[in-house]
Amino acid sequence: MQEKKSIHGSWASRWIFILAATGSAVGLGNIWKFPYITGENGGGAFVLVYLLCIALVGIPIMVGEVFIGRRARQSPVNALTDLAQESGQSKKWGLVGLMGMLAGVLIFSFYSIVAGWVLQYIFSTASGALNGISSEAAGALFEGLLADPTTLLMWHTVFTIMVLVVVSAGVNAGLERATRIMMPALFVLLLVLLGYAMSTDGFSAGWHFMFDFDVSKLSWDAVLVALGHSFFTLSLGMGSIMTYGSYMPKRASIGSTVLTIGILDTLVALVAGLAIFPIIFSNGMDPAAGPGLMFISLPVAFGQMAFGQLFGFLFFVLIGVAAWTSAISLMEPTVAFLVERVGMTRKKATLALGTVAWALGILCLGSFNFMSDFTLFGKNTFDFLDYLTANIMLPLGGIFVALFAGWVVKEKFAKDELSFKSEALFKVWKFIVKFIAPVAVTVVFILNL
Ligand code: TRP
After folding, report:
1. Predicted pLDDT of residue 2
2. Ligand 1 — pocket residues by CB below 6 A?
3. Domain residue spans of the chain
4. CATH number for the 14-448 domain, one of 3.30.210.10, 3.40.50.880, 1.20.1740.10, 1.10.600.10?
5. Ligand 1 atom closest to Cα of 240?
6. How far is the CA of 107 from the centre of ligand 1 (A)?
7. pTM listed for this prediction
C-alpha cells in the first residue's frame, strides 16, 4: 500500500512531535488541577493510583491513538471510519471521533475561563498588587474576579483569540512554531520554580504529603477522579493525540515516543506539586483548598516571600504558556475535520469553531455570577462540563479507542505501524488494550454509579 500523507502537513521531526504532544498534555491539568485534586483526595495514595492509571491505562491507549492517527493520516472521525472499513468493520466507529470533537469544544469552554484567570494573575503579580496580601484579601480578590463577568469575558476572549491565531496558521506555521518557542520556555520556567520551592522550608512537608501513602484515605470516587484525570492530563479520549499522531513522521517509533510523552507529562505534574505544596506548607495553609488553591493560597505565599513577586509572575506565565499549547490541541481535531470533510478553509474552520467554543464559554463564566443559580445535576455549568468531560466522556472515548485498537483494527495494521522491537511487547500492549484498559475503566465506572 502506498503511504498516506496528511493534507494538513507533518511535524519536522520525531522530537517536534514529542514536544507538540507534550505541549498538548502539559496544561492546566498538570499545574492547576493535579495539585488541587491531590490535595482534596488526601495526597500520597491518590498520587499512587494516578501513576498506575497513567502506566497501565493511559500510555497503552495513547499508543493506540497515535497509531490509528498515523496509519490513517486524517482527523479522528475519518481515521476511525477508514480504518474500520479497511478492517472490514462498521463505519459507525467514526461516531467515536464525533463524540471526541464534542468533548473538545466542551473542555475548551471551561478551560479557557481558567486560562483567563491565569492571564489576569499574570498582570496582578506583575503589577505588585499581590505583594504582602493577606489570605482574606487574596480570597476576596479571587471572589471578586469570579463575580465580575466583564473581566472574565475579556480574558476569556483574549485567550480564545490567542488560540485561534495559532490554530488558523496551520500545522507547521502555527502549531509547530508555537511548540518550538513555548516548550523550551516551559521547561526552563518549571525548573526555576522547582529550585525556588526546594529552597523553602516546606519542601519536606510537601514531599511527604505527595509521596507518603495511606490507602485507608482512598475512596472509589478518588479512584475515578484519578482515572479520569489520567485521560485528561494525557489529552486522551477525544482525538487530540490521534490528530497529532496523524502528522507524525513515518519512521519514528511509536512506543518509545509515547513513553517519552507520558514520562514528561507525569514529571511536570509531580514537579508542579513539588513546587506548589512546599509553598503552601511553609505558609501554614490548607492543601485541600480546592480549585482556588492556585489562585488564593499561592498568591498569599508568594506575597510573603523573598522575590515572591518575580517568582509569582513567572509561575503564572508558565501556566499561561502550558494552557495555551493545550488549548490548541482541543481545537485541532475539529478544525482538521472541517477542512477535510466540509471543505472549509482552515481560517474559516477555526473561526467557526472558535465562535461556538467562545459562546459556550460565556455559559461557563456565568456559573460564577449571573448564572450561579442554574444547575445541571446539582452542578453549575462549569463544574458540570468539567465532570461530564473528564469523568465520563474521556474515559468512554478511551474505552472505545482501546477496543478499536484491540479488537477492530486488523492485527497486521497495528503490527506494521507499531513495529515494536519484541513480539512480547506487542502482546503485552495488545492484552492491555483488549482487556485490561476497557475492563478497568468499566469497573471504576460501575463502582461509582
Ligand atoms: N491535557 C491538557 C491538560 O492537562 C488538556 C487537554 C488538551 C486535553 N487536549 C485535551 C484533555 C484532550 C483531554 C483531551 O491541561
Report:
1. 55
2. 24-25, 27-30, 107, 232-233, 235, 237-238, 240, 326, 329-330, 394
3. 14-448
4. 1.20.1740.10
5. 12
6. 8
7. 0.93
Residues 363, 109 contacting (CB under 8 angstroms): yes
Q: Which residues of 212-238 are buried (b: 16+ CB within 10 A; e: fewer)?
A: ebeeeebeeebbbbbbbbbbbbbbbbb
Residue 308 Cα to ligand 1 middle (Å): 29
Q: Which three cell numbers stand for residue 379?
A: 452542578
Q: Report the nearest-CA residue for atom 14 of ligand 1.
A: 235
> What atom in ligand 1 is closest to the CA of residue 330?
9
DSSP-derived secondary structure for 149-192: HHHHHHHHHHHHHHHHHHHHT-IIIIIIHHHHHHHHHHHHHHHH
pLDDT digits (tens, 9 = 90+) for 310-357: 989 998 999 999 999 999 999 999 999 999 999 999 999 999 999 999
Which amino acid belongs to residue 427?
A: K
Q: How far apart are the first and last CA of the chain?
A: 46
Rounded to whole angstroms, how far apart are CA atoms 13 and 150? 43
